[in-house]
Design goal:
The protein is of the alpha/beta class and 263 residues long. It is 46% helix and 14% strand. The chain has eleven helices and eight strands. The chain has helices at residues 13-18, 20-25, 36-41, 44-56, 77-95, 117-138, 153-162, 173-179, 184-191, 220-230, 246-259; strands at residues 7-12, 29-33, 62-64, 102-104, 142-145, 167-172, 195-200, 235-238. An eight-stranded parallel beta barrel has the order 1-2-3-4-5-6-7-8, surrounded by four helices. Helix 10 (220-230) links the parallel strand 7 and strand 8 (235-238). Helix 5 (77-95) packs parallel to helix 6 (117-138) and helix 6 crosses helix 7. It is globular. The termini are close together.
């Protein structure tokens, strides 16, 4: 029997705050992105007011942590401290919304780490173990998103070494298509059982265009076939970067989910 899934829409906090009536009117379940500026300027009263409005409407939330300039696996102590501070802030702020999940970037780039995955991994374990303690206290699950990774082994090692039921994987289809040197099947073989959220957007392998599903070159029929094959029930999140793509992104997401009897 098909499962009923809530589709989320990535929305920066400032845009959510300024367009709350539109979000409520359209019944959009937001994945709220907090960047550094938002974390430094938010009003707790505003956060709680927005949370109450979303809750009253029956809308679900997820949170996307900041990532610009941050390095959870970095070797510079000051950068690591700033990263921990931002992630800690995200957990505190995000927990107000009682989110289904908080998505974080792992920060590995082979060019920054001179292809030394183990250096990144050992430093990452220190960061995420500390953040996980806070996440457990707040009862907020975390998921690490693929970005520049060309293959899944580094993320598999991180998730396996952390070994927590609330520390899992967010599969970003657009980033996979841009940067992966191995097949989609290989990602599912390695990380399929850890998938708790997916970011759904398309591109033509030239730029991170965040197109509606089917407007680029990603093999979404294969993607949803693998979702079915591995029996995972992730949170589905679309990430349109243009307001004019919102409706089409939602329509295409619903289309593929229905095609594969997932909604």
């Amino acid at each position: 029997m098909a499962m009923q899934h809530v589709i989320h829409v990535n929305v920066p906090y400032r845009m959510l705050s300024e367009n709350l009536e539109f979000i409520l009117e359209k019944n959009l379940n937001p994945e709220i992105y907090f960047n550094g500026e938002a974390l430094d300027s938010y009003s707790e009263a505003d956060l709680r007011s927005i949370q109450r409005a979303l809750h009253k409407r029956g809308l679900k939330t997820t949170i996307h942590a900041p990532f610009m300039d941050l390095s959870p696996g970095g070797v510079d102590a000051k950068i690591k401290h700033a990263t921990l501070e931002r992630l800690d802030q995200t957990l505190e702020v995000g927990s107000i919304f009682r989110p289904r999940l908080i998505v974080c970037h792992p920060g590995y780039n082979k060019w920054f780490f001179d292809n030394n995955v183990d250096l990144w991994l050992e430093n990452s374990l220190v960061t995420w173990k500390e953040i996980l303690r806070k996440a457990e206290q707040l009862n907020v699950p975390l998921a690490i998103e693929n970005i520049f990774e060309e293959e899944p082994s580094g993320l598999f090692k991180l998730i396996s070494r952390i070994n927590s039921p609330i520390f899992n994987f967010c599969f970003d289809t657009g980033h996979f298509h841009l940067f992966s040197s191995v097949s989609m099947e290989d990602w599912f073989i390695s990380l399929g059982s850890f998938i708790k959220e997916v970011h759904l957007h398309d591109n033509n392998k030239h730029a991170d265009d965040h197109l509606p599903l089917g407007d680029g070159e990603i093999d979404f029929p294969l993607f949803f076939k693998l979702i079915n094959q591995y029996g995972v029930q992730p949170i589905y999140t679309i990430e349109p970067h243009r307001v004019e793509d919102l409706e089409r992104s939602l329509e295409k997401c619903h289309y593929f989910l229905k095609q594969h009897q997932l909604i």
